Amino acid sequence: MLTNAQLATMVLRHVIFHDVPNQRGEGGQQVVLATDPTPIDADRRRLLKSKLVKSLDSKSAYGVTFQLQPTSPVPKLVRDWTAQGYNATKFVEASQVMAQHLYQVQTGAVSAGLLAVIDITVDNRHGLILMKLERDQGAEVKMKHEGQKSHFEMSILDSLILTGNTRLFKTAAFLRRGPGDDDFEMAACDNQHNATDTKEMARFWRKYLGCDLEEAARVSTAKFFGATMDFINTHMDDPELQTVMYESLHSELRSAHQAISPRAFLTNHVPEPVRHELRTFLEERHVPLTSFEKDTQDISGALRRLTYISEAGVRVVAPENRGELVVVEAEQIVVNDRLSKLGRA
Hints:
With 345 residues, the protein is an alpha+beta fold. The chain has three domains: 4-213, no CATH class; 217-293, no CATH class; 304-335, no CATH class. It has helices at residues 4-8, 42-56, 74-82, 88-105, 155-161, 198-208, 217-235, 239-254, 262-269, 272-284, 300-303, and strands at residues 11-20, 32-33, 61-66, 113-122, 125-134, 143-146, 149-152, 170-176, 184-190, 211-213, 259-260, 292-293, 305-309, 315-319, 326-328, 333-335.
């Protein structure tokens, strides 16, 4: 999973575009392959990076890992490319194979579009970004030919990427962190689907990227819950804010949502004074900030509540796994906790 800090220091070095139609003939019958990267000036490079960071740092982004036995050529191409220094010929060849493979899987209701393959570095580490763009009807896309070479003109960035209505509806980033085949920080984003809708996104990325969503859902869920609880108990001094955070966390995990978006939780439920601190706390503990499927089987006991009702109708509700907080005696119920706030039922 790429962190916000890594995305902020990302350097875009080279980008090449290919026009990839749907096999129904939408957008053209054949793949239009460039043979050279598109030259980009400093201003467009900066704006393109801003678009990518916004997409990959959004609640629609998910951590992914390479499949063990992918049918897609993308994992090998990414591994081979990021293990070497930049070579213009190999960069073009790898991007063309990726475009041809996209054409093979781009069937049925999958929209036609352009594939951008972007060579990046982060702290001198090599990476690659794949970006699929919706090609709006009427958007002008020009190919420039120079002898046997051809590339899409820089105006493609103005027409399809840098406009306010642009839909970068599928993006994936791979950053090498070591020499091994799985030594990568990776994320994929699909702006066509909600953060809670992982299945449709996962289906396309499995076929095209040869990737699966990162780690087991129950592991991600338990890590998020455990780290947030640790933060509440060790980094927050205000009992009232602790209670609000505690209730919001439990409400989120007991909701009917199929996925958890830590970024949305930070925005919607975490007080501004501690929001950045919690985000850093989660990243340091390798908790994904990208959305992931929710599975509470490992923390189900911590989410259940016990309700104690006295003869006079006093109700005490406590976490089931914190039995020491409430002691039931013959003549009284003792709550071993501090009062944080008063409220009305």
